[in-house]
Amino acid sequence: MSRATTAVDANLLDATARLGDAVAALAADQAHPLPGAGHGWLPCRYLMLRDALYGTRGAGGRRRQPSSVIPCWVDALKLLLVIDAWAAELECRYPPRYAAADDSDHVTVRRVRALLEFGWRPQDSRDLLDISAELAGYAKAIDDLFAPKPIYLPNACPHCGHRHAYRYADDGQHVRTPALAVTAEHGAVCQSCHAVWPPDQLVFLGRILGTAAAGIPA
């Protein structure tokens, strides 16, 4: 076997391994620790997002929409439509080699998992990496939707002095937001200069800003 052939085979092995990780991130059940010992299982990210589609997400669990409006989580619906259309397109480009053994799974979950059964060739490595990146991006987008929303501080960033930052919203609009965003998990970040204060530095940041520590998540 030539060196060139060995390198191509190694590229395919790496690409299929990445695909396996990406498929698992979006369409495999998730293990989570249980109190004491052992672990349980949660549905895959895609199904968790679909299950939450018509859940209540207002403060205290109250619906914010009038009773005449279907309480649909619009951001979740948009993401689901994108994932469903993408998975259907992939099935046309890369038809599954075998019929689905378990029809109880959602069609999109079946389509994503079927990617692992396709007869990938060494020349498909680039496509595999692109597909894996797309899958990983969808998994992260779901995590972002479920993540606690940040608290925005009115103070100027101690690092760059900016009070506001500008970003593009999902609808393409250029919107202004406070520069300093704080979450208990990630700490504070300036959305203008991208300076970061980890969670263990939040009290220190509060002193710099003259903000009461109670106003910043601990």
SSE topology sketch:
Layout lengths: L2 H25 L2 E4 L5 E4 L2 H7 L22 H20 L13 H8 L10 H22 L4 E3 L10 E5 L5 E5 L1 E4 L3 E4 L5 E2 L4 H8 L9
Antiparallel strand pairs: 1-2, 3-6, 4-5, 6-7, 7-8
Helix pairs in contact: 1-4, 1-5, 3-4, 3-5
How would you describe what is shown here?
This protein has 218 residues and is of the alpha+beta class. It has two domains: 3-146, no CATH class; 151-215. The chain is built from six helices and eight strands; from the N terminus they run αββααααββββββα. It has helices at residues 3-27, 45-51, 74-93, 107-114, 125-146, 202-209, and strands at residues 30-33, 39-42, 151-153, 164-168, 174-178, 180-183, 187-190, 196-197. A hairpin with a 5-residue loop joins β1 (30-33) and β2 (39-42). α1 (3-27) runs antiparallel to α4 (107-114), α1 packs parallel to α5 (125-146) and α3 crosses α4 (107-114). It is elongated. The N and C termini lie far apart (58 Å).
